[in-house]
């Protein structure tokens, strides 16, 4: 009743629903605290390391030019811990703080999502199609303390930053750098 994907048995929708129902019927215990990064990602990395689970990519990204990024569960876990440290230490964020990410579809988007889960930081995604007015509204409404964007989008985003009273740090993703911005790759 399961299908195979790269040699792994995957749960079918009916199995997932029955697991959920067993929690609702109090047949399985619901954990008091759950963190996807540490409870799932790190556990899968441990199972791979111990040889109890075949090695498969946790993340596999390919862009239009054929550029490829492939991370194992262990690599994604390690990188997300480093990124969580960047957010906590360099950006000065704490559990419950909010981060707005205005990024195109790049691997760092997923990395930062997992890092925020790991650190208990609220990740607010935004597409690269947001206007200055959209970004300004989101910054004020969310009281975000950090803004993350790409080196190519930073000039457009900077126009709304002076009006943001809650913003403490700005993090840039990509190859370029800007004055007053922290650079993710350098900090990792």
From TrEMBL:
Q: Supply one GO BP term.
A: fatty acid biosynthetic process
User: Which E.C. number(s) belong to this protein?
Assistant: 6.2.1.2
The protein's matches in Pfam families, at most eight in alphabetical order, are given as: AMP-binding
UniProt catalytic activity: a medium-chain fatty acid + ATP + CoA = a medium-chain fatty acyl-CoA + AMP + diphosphate
The entry lists its GO molecular-function terms as:
ATP binding; fatty-acyl-CoA synthase activity; medium-chain fatty acid-CoA ligase activity
Q: Which domain of life is it from?
A: Eukaryota
- Gene Ontology CC: one annotated term: mitochondrial matrix
Q: Where is the AMP-dependent synthetase/ligase domain?
A: 52-175
User: What residue stretch is flagged as signal peptide?
Assistant: none
Top-level EC class: ligase
Keywords from UniProt, A to Z, are:
ATP-binding, Fatty acid metabolism, Ligase, Lipid metabolism, Nucleotide-binding
Query: Which InterPro entries does this UniProt record tie to the protein?
Result: AMP-dep_synth/lig_dom, ANL_N_sf, Mitochondrial_ACSM
Similarity section: Belongs to the ATP-dependent AMP-binding enzyme family.
For this entry, the protein name equals medium-chain acyl-CoA ligase
Give the species this sequence originates from: Phainopepla nitens (Phainopepla)
């Amino acid at each position: 009743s399961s299908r195979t994907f790269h040699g792994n048995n995957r749960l079918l929708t009916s199995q997932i629903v029955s697991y959920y129902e067993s929690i609702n019927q109090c047949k399985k215990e619901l954990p008091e605290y759950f963190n996807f990064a540490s409870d799932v990602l790190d556990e899968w990395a441990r199972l791979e390391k111990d040889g109890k689970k075949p090695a498969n990519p946790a993340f596999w990204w390919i862009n239009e030019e054929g550029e490829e990024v492939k991370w194992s569960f262990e690599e994604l876990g390690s990188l997300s811990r480093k990124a969580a440290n960047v957010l906590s230490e360099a950006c000065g964020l704490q559990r419950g703080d909010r981060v707005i990410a205005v990024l195109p579809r790049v691997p760092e988007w997923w990395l930062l999502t997992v890092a925020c889960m790991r650190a208990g930081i609220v990740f607010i995604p935004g597409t690269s199609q947001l206007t200055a007015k959209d970004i300004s509204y989101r910054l004020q409404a969310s009281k975000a303390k950090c803004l993350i964007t790409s080196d190519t989008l930073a000039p457009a985003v900077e126009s709304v930053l002076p009006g943001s009273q809650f913003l403490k740090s700005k993090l840039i993703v990509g190859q370029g750098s800007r004055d007053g911005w922290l650079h993710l790759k350098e900090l990792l």
